[in-house]
Amino acid sequence: MFWPIFLRVITSGDLWQASLQFAALLLLPALGGVISERSGVVNIAMEGMMLIGCYVGVVITLASHSVLVGLLAAIIAGGLLALVHGVVSIHLKADQIISGIAINVAALGLTNYLNIIQTGGQGIPSLASNLRLPMLSWGPLAQIPFLGQVLFQQNVVFYVTIVILIGLQFLLFRTNLGLRIRAVGEHPQAADTAGIAVRLIRYACVVASGLLSGLAGAFLALGVAGTFNSNMTAGRGFIALAAVVFGKYTPLGAAGACLIFGLGLALSVRLQDTGIDSNLLATLPYILTIIALIGLVGRTVAPAADGVPYEPGSAE
Predict the structure, then answer these.
(1) Is the pLDDT score of 29 beyond 90?
(2) Closest by Cα among 180, 198, 181, 183 to 314
(3) pTM above 0.85, yes or no
């Protein structure tokens, strides 16, 4: 019974459409992680930034009756939380891992508390269709068998993510600004000597990672789920962090990793009709993540100054 259902699922356009959707959802914070780590700041707080984006996006959308306003609010909320991480990590020189964990825990507790206070424990209702991020259908292209559904019937944020991916790849490896970001993450002392504002670039990159994570949270809440639920990110921020390492701190590498992890997420949903316990299926993306990191990545070298607070005038 399992194999016929599995073959039907694996060859369906629904699975691959969902895989690309989940891949884009993971790729947004992963791209933020790439740019933050490339500048020398470890950001494991993407989970919390996504969760804040989910909550703020839904609440502001309901209050303003505008999905665009909710989307912008979610992006800003993620950026503000990233700014907190930046101040603690860059200015106060605290341990970046501890700072990230604290932000994740605080985001989970705060969103749960506000959700209970706001709804009296009843939960936020599902959003109306006009308050959700729209799906795009590319006319005749969307009618192409299989490929039309997979590539040309996706949420608008999916296509925005592709543009961001291409732009960030070009920025990091084809521009002077990208060279400065990489220099700050590898040799901040030399970059400072060359007149590069090390702290400013690190702040900008960390905040950018928060903006992208907030966008991912809005995508999840306003595009995929259509509501807010407690801890609805469910570790996706950590999978995105794994994609950064899997992709060896490059945007295109992270995109490849997110495709694999997105397939795992889609399979965990689509295989529920096989009779396998849903709790067991829910572990599939995380098991796939562990297997990929252990067995496929090999030795990955992070930027030399990644996670090291910079003190002007210090020798690193």
Answers:
(1) yes
(2) 198
(3) yes
